[in-house]
Specification:
- It is a single chain.
- The chain is of the alpha+beta class and about 150 residues long.
- The strands form 3 sheets. A 4-stranded mixed beta sheet has the order 4-9-8-6. A 3-stranded antiparallel beta sheet has the order 2-1-3, with no helix packed on it.
- It is built from 4 helices and 9 strands.
């Protein structure tokens, strides 16, 4: 099935790309979650609009990505959350929480969809996260989760 990606999907493509995937993957996962729309002849106009929007938010060059990476890796991020007595959190830390914590710590504005967590953050302490800035550049960032 041909689809048009509306968001970046790891291993598949970026927003605005027209890709061919198995019918079940598109019907059961990509389309219901809003990651893609079905391809139609009229959808070609949507592709141009999606690509224009992507260029506005995209980091254009590797040099620019490396500059943002240097700024990110120099930031000390502390995130205060509610936790129980044993150090377990009530819920978990989301990429949106991390994006706002990076910005409030004086770092650059980061899109929450570019933050990759290896596993959900559900405990207090230090954690490593990865921020995918460009297909060839990603920044490793240490986050200190403390009790509020």
């Amino acid at each position: 099935m041909k689809i048009i990606l509306t968001n970046e999907v790891s291993g598949l493509g970026a927003a605005g790309d027209v890709v061919d995937v198995k019918d079940g993957y598109a019907r059961n996962y990509l389309v219901p979650r809003g990651f893609a729309i079905r391809w139609t002849k009229g959808g070609e106009k949507d592709v141009a609009q999606i690509r224009r929007a992507r260029k506005i938010h995209e980091i254009a060059t590797i040099e620019q990505a490396n500059e943002i990476k240097a700024r990110l890796e120099g930031v000390n991020v502390r995130l205060a959350v509610r936790s129980g007595d044993a150090g377990r959190l009530f819920g978990s830390v989301t990429p949106a929480d991390l994006a706002s914590a990076i910005k409030s710590a004086g770092g650059p504005e980061v899109d929450k969809r570019r933050i990759e967590l290896g596993a959900p953050i559900k405990t207090l302490g230090g954690h490593q996260i990865s921020v995918r800035l460009h297909p060839e550049v990603s920044a490793k960032l240490g986050v200190e989760v403390v009790s509020a």
